[in-house]
Amino acid sequence: MQADLVLEGGGVKGIGTVGAVLGLMERGYAFPRIAGTSVGAVVAALVAAGADTRQLRGAMGRLELSQVPDRMPPHVPLISEALALFTRNGAYEGDYLKDWLDRELQALGVTTFGDLRREPDGDDGNLHDDQRYKLVVLATDITRGRLLRLPWDYHRFHLDPDRQSVADAVRMSMSIPLFFEPQQLTDPVTGETSVVVDGAVLSNFAVEIFDRTDGRQARWPTYGVRIMPDLPTGMDHVFPTLGLPLPPPFEVLKKVVVTAFVGNDQTHLDRPDVRDRTITIDTAEVGITEFDVDPEMVQALIHHGREAVDAFFADQPG
Q1: 279 contacts 20 by C-beta, under 8 angstroms
Q2: Residue 38 among the catalytic residues
Q3: Of 60, 195, 211, 314, which shows the fewest CB atoms inside 10 Å?
Q4: Motif span (GXSXG) (predicted)?
Q5: DSSP code, position 13
């Protein structure tokens, strides 16, 4: 069976996404195309590179979550975070996760998006050649004020999509504002540089990204995997505060940021055609930046992901 797949971002909550993807694979699903934001892009990249259930579990087993918040020198708690925020606009470098993903992808034979090209197979007639890839990574260009769908939008920077690093694109997508250092994307022709942050700022759950636009019937379904809570009850599970209490005025800022991350997608989910193809995982037990989560919680989140898949198909008609 085939299905396109869209994976929501949400930091550590994304461990549940791994469980859902494993559950889908164990049901016999393969994914011609897969899109993801932030941690969803991490899982999506591994699956697009051809990881099977064994390889996906192995890759996640080699990820040391406690190393993901990688401090810059002098590597002193709070001091390093404060220095990084003022000098690099992000508390942590984010290099550990990018380097881990790069190694895992290379082991699967993937380095650049050129390794993830797909041949046309009854595709949407409106798709351009630079949209024929197995993977789409969502990021936010805060210089130009627009969503980036990589590799689809590299042409806007006069860059050859086939030559761009998959791990670099995922690193851009996971740049949680203030938490991870933002990334840059430079146009070699104009010399203009954009600052790029987490795709969740504009689209954390782009479940419609693979929908046909040529009026023809879809060849197979698109499923979305959602890990973020509905608002307002999930407000405190979304915004990372680096373990520091927020002064009252910043509570308003927190709500603005959370709404930017989740509000647009939550409104979109009110449409029956979106909710009906969405696998929703209960991840309330963990926050998006709780990288010190214990092994028991990791297994619980994976179990929740599998349970969500079972519940989703149990509710399907027929």
Answers
A1: yes
A2: yes
A3: 314
A4: 36-40
A5: G
